[in-house]
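User: I've been trying to design a sequence by hand for this structure and keep getting stuck. Would you show me what you'd pick, starting by listing the structure so we're on the same page?

Assistant: Good idea, let's start from the same input. This is the structure you sent:
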């Protein structure tokens, strides 16, 4: 391992200084790109966590809405049944009973 690093150092030392400055710039740019990439990965992880939390909250709200909807359906069904009963058996008021017209019998029509 030490032999390999020594050989690499020797090879780098044989390069002219102009090429070394260009390589240093390239290394600097690659380091910056790696830092940006790591920052982007961290951003994506945080975004996914926030999205997951939001979806959990949305699911809770969705369940509550479904419960409320079921309760409303039950209430509306009761009200509809009560209205149907009222329509089938309308209660006559006191004055309607008092002033209702009596039908004449068939015998009286013939006379």
């Amino acid at each position: 391992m030490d032999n390999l690093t020594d050989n690499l150092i020797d090879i780098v030392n044989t390069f002219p200084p102009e090429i070394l400055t260009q390589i240093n710039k390239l290394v600097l740019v690659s380091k910056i790109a790696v830092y940006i990439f790591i920052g982007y990965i961290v951003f994506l992880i945080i975004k996914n966590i926030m999205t997951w939390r939001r979806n959990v909250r949305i699911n809770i709200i969705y369940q509550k809405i479904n419960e409320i909807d079921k309760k409303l359906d039950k209430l509306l069904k009761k009200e509809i049944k009560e209205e149907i009963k009222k329509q089938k058996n309308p209660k006559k008021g006191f004055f309607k009973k008092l002033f209702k017209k009596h039908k004449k019998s068939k015998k009286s029509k013939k006379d």
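That's my pick for every position. To get oriented when you compare it with your attempt: The mean pLDDT is 82. Helices lie at 2-13, 17-88, 94-99, 106-110.
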